Amino acid sequence: MLDREGYRPNVGIVLLNQRNEVFWGKRVGQHSWQFPQGGIQHGENPEQAMYRELHEEIGLEPQHVQIIGRTREWLRYDVPQEFLRRPSAANAARRSTRQAYRGQKQIWFLLRMVGRDSDVCLRATDHPEFDAWRWSPYWIPLDVVIDFKREVYELALSELARYISRGPRMMMMPWGSPLDLYKSTLHDPKQDSEPS
After folding, report:
1. Residues 50, 110: contact at Cβ < 8 Å?
2. Of 3.30.930.10, 3.20.20.100, 3.30.470.20, 3.90.79.10, which CATH number belongs to 7-193?
3. How far does Cα 182 stand from its chain's mean position?
4. Which residues, 6+ apart, have CB-to-CB distance to 140 below 8 Å?
5. Model pLDDT for residues 115-143, shown as the tens digit of each residue
6. Mean per-residue pLDDT for 159-182?
7. Tens-digit pLDDT profile for residues 71-106
8. C-alpha distances in angstroms, 2 versus 91, 100, 154?
């Protein structure tokens, strides 16, 4: 299911633990790490697709997570030609009358894990996406993200950060700065008057 511009509707998932670290999954048989994501099927809305993908890719159920927020708009990326599957002659003829696939358009969800790490099950389906996982700092190093997805990851994490920051401080931090969300960003004048 493609839109008129050739983008497939998709959801991305940023899953946080209690320390505001993000779930980072290693693709099966590759040394490639990413956030869970997947296509929206016909008849699904983005939230339904997110819960389905959450279960299919990491085995979590709705009771294991809490939705904190989502991106306001679709974020898009183009898939380079070398990553596109070559259609057979029959499929190519059929596709010539339809819009050509360009990439993904994604709604990103920010979730809080309320379950336990042991609730994660990478083999919840017969076709696992990941063969390992870990918790990583929120501001993941962008150079480890496949190059054509980097901008979308940066946009998604930057937009979703507003849901977990205390005030505007986190949005002003340079990429990769450590998250210290537990300290107040307000100045306490009483501290100035206390004797040392």
Report:
1. no
2. 3.90.79.10
3. 23
4. 22, 24, 153, 157
5. 999 999 999 999 999 999 999 999 998 99
6. 62
7. 999 999 999 988 777 655 555 555 555 678 999 999
8. 15, 8, 24
